[in-house]
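hey so i finaly got around to running the thing on Signal peptidase I from Alkalicoccus daliensis. pasting the sequence first so u can double check i didnt mess up the copy paste, my clipboard has been acting weird all day
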Amino acid sequence: MQSKRKVKDMYRKPVWLRIAWGTMQAVLIVAVFSFVVREFMFTNYVVYGQSMMPTIRDGERIIVNKIGYELMEPDRFDLIIFHADEDSDYIKRIIGLPGDELRYESDTLYVNGEAVEEDFLEESKGSNGSEVFTDDFTLEDLTDEQTVPEDHVFVLGDNRQNSIDSRQIGYVPAEEIVGRVNMTFWPPQNIRFVH
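ok and heres what it spat out for the 3d tokens, dont ask me to read them lol
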């Protein structure tokens, strides 16, 4: 009986080795899970600049929902992150969807000939020193096209007088969109969902 027990003990791994192996497995599982979540579900960004103020402030950290956004139809007024170039990602608001005819006239957005309210700009317009918050333009003035092309969106920053957006860089291809901004999480006093 004792000889069998000795034989079993010879093949048993030392306690420290079992603990190390268990720890390595846990770390690997967490790393794979984190990679999958970050690549395919959610990611976070730090916002630099004032182009989305007061909706999103310089230095705030945001959560971006990537789940299936490339398969979904974007909605007007979604806040999105997109690849502006090889080195930079921008945060902007979708104003124009594929097929839309857009124009601004007397600080009013017109989509397909109808005035559209931009409630999210009320705070900014009230604190704006000048009378005009968004300068007049038409798509044709900016792009030589009358409507937003298929698989593209037209974006603007909420801080209209201090934003590099579709007025300068043109339409954003749908495949360059990373995802929709869901919430801010840093600094803690600014935690909120973004609609």
